[in-house]
Every structure is written in C-alpha cells, then in structure tokens.
Design brief:
306 residues; 8-stranded mixed β-sheet; 10 helices; 8 strands; 35% helix
Length: 306
Amino acid sequence: MPSATEGTVEFKVPDLVEPCHTWYKTFGDLKDPSKIPLVIVHGGPGACHDYLLPLTDLSSAIPLVFYDQIGNGRSTHLPGKAGDETFWSVDLFKRELDNLISHLGLKEKPIDVYGHSWGGMLVAEWAATPSSANLRRLVISNSLASMDAWRIGITRLRKQLPDDVQEVLDRLEKKKDFDSPEYEAAVEVFYKRHLSLARPWPSEEVQAALSWFAKDATTYSTMYGPSELSITGSLRNWSCIPILSEIKVPTLLLNGTEDEAQDVAMYPFFEHIDKVRWVTLENAAHFSHVDQREKYMHHLMAFLDP
C-alpha cells in the first residue's frame, strides 16, 4: 500500500467565531500527473471515513483522499449546534468539500469523486454546480436521489420484517422512545438485513460507523433523524432530481439487492444523468463494499481506470 499522509485544513464558517478544521488522509501521490485522484465522501451524516477504508484496495493504482466531515470524527465537533437545521445544510458540506479540494491543490487537475449514502447525495449536488468543473468521473454508491423515493423503499423493507419487530418499531416510535434497548434491538434486525450482510455481525466497518454515531450524533440526528427508520431531520424533504441533468460527467451507480438504498431511490439518477452506468450487486446490502468487496472493487476499478 502506498504511503499515507494525514493533515487538517482550516475551514471558515460564517456563523462561527472560530474556524473549523477538516481532517483528511491521503494515500499515494496526489501530484502524479499519470494518475487521477479519487476523493471519497462518507455517509451518515456523521458516519466518518473509517467504514470506507476497504477502498484502500484501489490505492496501488489510484491516489485516494479520505476525510471526516465537520461535526464528527477527527474533524471539528459542534455539539452546541445540535438541532440547528439552518446551520447543518447541504451547502455547508459542499463548501467544505470545495475547501478541501482547493487545499490539496486539486482544483486545477482532473479528479474523480466518490460518495456513499449521504455522501452520494452530497456529491450529486456538488457535481451539478460549477465548482465541479475539473470533475472527470463520478461514483454514487448506495444512495438516493430524493427522500420521498427513499421512504418508499424503506417502507417496503420495513413491512417485510417479522410482525413482532414491526410492532416494537411502531409502538416505540409513537412514544419517541428511540434509545430503549428494545427499540435498538428491533433496528438491529433491520440493519442485519439491509445495512450489511457480512458475518460475524457487526463487521469492523459497521461497528466503526455505528460507534461514531454513538459518540456524537449531532449531524445525523439533526439532518436525518433519531434512527434509520425515523426520518425527521432537515433532509426529510430533500431531493436533487431537478438538478441531475446538470451532471455531465460519466457516472457509476452502485447498490445491492438487499440495500436500504432500494432501486426506487437510485432510479432517478439513472433516469436523469446522461452518461450513466448502474450495477446492482447480488447478496449485498448498504455496505456493498464490505458484503461483496472483491466484486465491488472490480466494478470501481473498471470504471475509474483511465
């Protein structure tokens, strides 16, 4: 594996007196003119980069950039902003991504960008703006083009859960009792079917993401909601469908057959992006990069290989 470099970049946010800091880690030489770097944008919000480290399988051929978005991980935490839907906006994270790309000297050379789950939502919006002028290829993995479409898929999967599990979810959501062991156990049944199929449960990658949510739920709870099955945060009515036609670069879509990102949530990307390819992996859920690691990396490499 190529050598890794860690660092932080100052990120000034107008609403804050003190600047934030975005932590990042790179693998390989970003300045190698013969290679196109891949910037990797994690999900959550707040899941942090660790669960995507299997993508280092690509690092012998492709320089990689991982980072933790502000609000969690090794970047600046802002627990005082919990619940502030105006502050935690998609635009905030688009500006952070632009700031990181500029700091790393990647604004003037071609780059590829990968987004997983919430990261896919973020990069879809970013790729439709002039900021993405140097974008060569885009990967949207296990994601959604609108929250309405996501709800259709999630509701369908929820109705396939055992009756007793559905009863617990319904009863405790009405009480807003999202922290009880009974509710968490019911959500875990869903996770084992649709977050990751890797066993033993939880895999290292699943545990990494869930641990960051447990340590600081500021961004996840504010933007998504109190649980994966209760979408009440600022993204509750989000959609990027009206701007998808602005994405002009070749785009790869990835999801799994058992994914909580069901085909109904991914389809608008396929419908509205002009140069698009879509791969659905069998026997894979939301963490397809873990569940079907070898096949997943094969599809990524085939798409990104210059």
